[in-house]
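Workshop exercise sheet. Pairs work together: one partner reads the sequence aloud, the other fills in the structure field after running the prediction. Swap roles for the next sheet.
Pair: D.N. / O.F.
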Amino acid sequence: MTTTSDQTSDSLTDQTIDTLNAFLRGEMSAVEAYQQALERLTNAGARPQLDECRRDHQQRVEKLRRHIMQLGGAASEGSGVWGTFTKLFEGGAKVFGDRATIAALEEGEDHGLRLYRDDMDKLDIQARELVEMDLLPAQRRTHATLSALNRTLH
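Structure field:
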């Protein structure tokens, strides 16, 4: 017989998995966006920072996948709507150059920060700790890197 406590726990686990998958799709979208930016970038001096940010987002993808699977969930396979939007937007950014590409990436970093902050209350304690101690500080670092890069190009 399932108790109310078990049902509440299952519900929180399902909500945690759903939220982590939303984070995962955002991180996969970020990896795709950085990859596209690196392919189009003409400013060779910005490449190391962008590649570092791409690798950082890829590490977050792996951490999120592992945590989702530890909870018994199925990790999202694709970046979903945000990935499609990123492809269209980055394709247009090629026409506008490096400044527009960097600005678009910084907007994505802003979105990532908001997503982590706004949805942390939907997580169980262990997932919240992962976000607070690991993912959010990493997101702040990539955001700061893009902000600094954006300022140097303007």
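Discussion prompt: The chain has one domain: 36-153. What would you look at next?
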